[in-house]
Amino acid sequence: MTDATADALVECRNVSFGYAERLILDDVSFTVPRGKVTALMGASGGGKTTVLRLIGGQLRARQGELLFDGTDIARLDREALYAMRSRMGMLFQFGALFTDLTVFENVAFPLREHTKLSEALLRDIVLMKLNAVGLRGARDLMPSEVSGGMARRIALARAIALDPELVMYDEPFAGLDPISLGTSAQLIRRLNDTLGITSIVVSHDLDETFHIADYVIVLANGRVAAQGTPEEVRHSTDPLVHQFVHAEPEGPVHFHYPGPSVAEDFSAGLAR
What we know:
The protein is of the alpha/beta class. The protein is about 40% helix and about 25% strand. It has a domain at about 5-85 and about 165-235: Rossmann fold (3-Layer(aba) Sandwich), CATH 3.40.50.300.
């Protein structure tokens, strides 16, 4: 066992996954180091969110192993899987708050579902989590009364309510203004270090993500195109990674979806 494997909280070993004939992940292998912020990046449709779903056990790989703390998630029965999930927190792309519950009750929800804490202790924990994201004063508001950035932070308070070992973020910066984006990025970094957790961040925001990440994995065409520190990935000579990192319109990733040539399509229409 290598040092990297021994220190990994999540390990992806030769994983392949697809929908029908469409292959999303093709023999993908990587590790997520314990206690670090790992960024999972790449062009849209590259399989980043699919990886999060595989880690959470929502999907099962066609082949290979997806290990969490040394345990193959696909081999767990329902009870063991639910127990494993209690060690994970998930921040969904747009928060996914329960619209008919207050901010307080949204954060309290996993505690009510998975613990038997007294109301007094539950209240203290919820207020602590909300305070950690700067929103203790918003506890009595409804989701419709908060901004998009606030909703994302409330969802983060809910994600860390059970003190998970792993927190997964699916596009945490999407749709945020520059102030909210910077606040959210620094919050992810601070919580990771303060709580001693492991974080996986799926994002397209290169600058903010590279700023807070310890390690970066770039997925492309169903495989790992590059991995390493942000600086190593930024200077990758791989054409696809270079195009992604430098936001170049021309390169291996094409603007047009594959199909017949323009001449063929239009001439076929004229023939009819």
